[in-house]
User: Fold this.
Amino acid sequence: MNWQSDANVTETILAPVLEGWYDHHKRDLPWRHTRDPYRIWLSEVILQQTRVAQGKPYYERFVAAYPTVADMARSDEQSLLRLWQGLGYYSRARNLHQTARYVTEHCAGKFPDTYRELLKMKGIGAYTAAAVASFAFGERVAVVDGNVYRVLARLFGIDQDITTTAAKKTFAALAARLIERANDPATYNQAVMEFGAIQCTPVSPDCLLCPLQQHCVAYQTGRQSRLPVKAKKSPVRDRYYSYLVFRNNGRLALRERTARDIWQNLFDFYLQETDEPVTTLRDLALPDPVSGLVQQGASAAYVVELSQLLSHQRIRAFFHLIDLPDRLLEQLPTGLNWYSMDQVNELPKPVLISNYLAREFG
Ligand code: SF4
Assistant:
């Protein structure tokens, strides 16, 4: 093997090689057929949440519902959250909505056309600003996402922990130098990310058919699986939710989650959180008025247990269905409101709640 690990040489050839590779290997994706900054921004926000195969139908649904930024700005937040349902990180969906409104109200409906101006928008960080500025406006500014960290760390043998500020500076500076040699900044940015997504993958990169094999420090030193270096994630926190699902004449009682916590502005049922799993109503320490209501209602004999894994939390939930007669309706805890099943279907809800509804009433 002709070992050519000279960083200067790699810097010189990388952009043209990747642009050529991209020309032959790129996937045909709907957001690659547009230079509309709104649609590019939308696709990038969706793809921060999920893989391309899962993100594509979301993108298509959003574009069908809101073809322009003005359409999104006019929508109500609940409809938008419903379309977003299943992607998680709901604060990003709310930022999407607020940014659409900002663009419509303060920028005459036109997205800012430079990286610097884009960065000033709510919810648009360095990565998204670089993606929109380069893909839509051709600005020569490098994107640095997880794919780019991986490709550059392996190619150049950089073993700094990519969660540190020092490493972020190293990679940003290298990426900025590399894009200077690109024929077209938009193509180069797409190319390096696509290369990371389908060639230089996290597990089992396709090194044997890689056009950069001879220049790749990781390949030449057998360190593909050890690069990039990333500090271990903080441990997952376990949370235990006991839900009381009050039902009356086919209607269910739900409330909007307003606290600064997971699932803000989504709807769920009366919730008691506990430090340990509590599987029976009897062992649940409910406040007085609620425990009285539970005793007078007719509780189902079974408990439905479901769980959901979020990025840093594991939710284990126990659902208790309780039928309330009309005479107790006035004692419903504050914040809860009655919804018909059709209305419940329309509300934005966490996936955990949707799964419960599908299982119990679907
Ligand atoms: S040789 Fe392997 S590790 Fe190196 S850039 Fe190519 S695919 Fe990635």
Observations:
- Residues 195 and 281 are 53 Å apart (CA to CA).
- The chain is about 45% helix and 15% strand.
